[in-house]
Specification:
six-stranded mixed β-sheet; single chain; 4 helices; Cytidine Deaminase, domain 2; binds zinc ion; alpha+beta
């Protein structure tokens, strides 16, 4: 069964709930767990993640933890993904996350990325002219 964009957005927001409860008890955790991500795999499984944000620039995006959860469960192909704030505003993935999804599985260039309310783009549209096709062939 195809999961709707609305349900996937809801799952991303739900992923932030407990993290935000903890964040409210900690000084300096303004954006800890403030972004949630939800993805559905080629097999139809849904995995979620949150961002981690700490002092000294340590941390990672919500997409990273959702992808890690997917790989932990033996999958690499993302059919659709979304990231949102805890308030439910959809966020397009940063450049690092776009590259990560591609490197996890090249077929993810066909991943549908929800980029706004009712908007979606393929990862290949968000990651044009990738560097790998220009890298020295002798080093591959
Ligand atoms: Zn990112």
């Amino acid at each position: 069964m195809e999961i709707s964009d609305k349900v996937l957005v809801k799952r991303a927001v739900e992923a932030t709930k407990k993290a935000r409860q903890v964040a409210e008890t900690r000084e300096g955790w303004k954006f800890m767990g403030y972004v949630g991500a939800a993805l559905v795999t080629e097999a139809g499984n849904v995995f979620t993640g949150i961002n981690i944000e700490l002092y000294c620039g340590m941390g990672f995006c919500a997409e990273h933890s959702a992808v890690a959860e997917m790989v932990k469960n033996g999958e690499t192909k993302i059919r659709k993904i979304v990231a949102t704030t805890a308030e439910g505003n959809v966020l397009p993935p940063c450049g690092r996350c776009r590259e990560m999804m591609y490197q996890i599985d090249e077929s993810n260039l066909d991943t549908e990325v929800i980029t706004g309310d009712g908007d979606r783009q393929l990862l290949r549209e968000l990651l044009p002219n990738n560097w790998q096709t220009h890298f020295d062939k002798s080093l591959k």
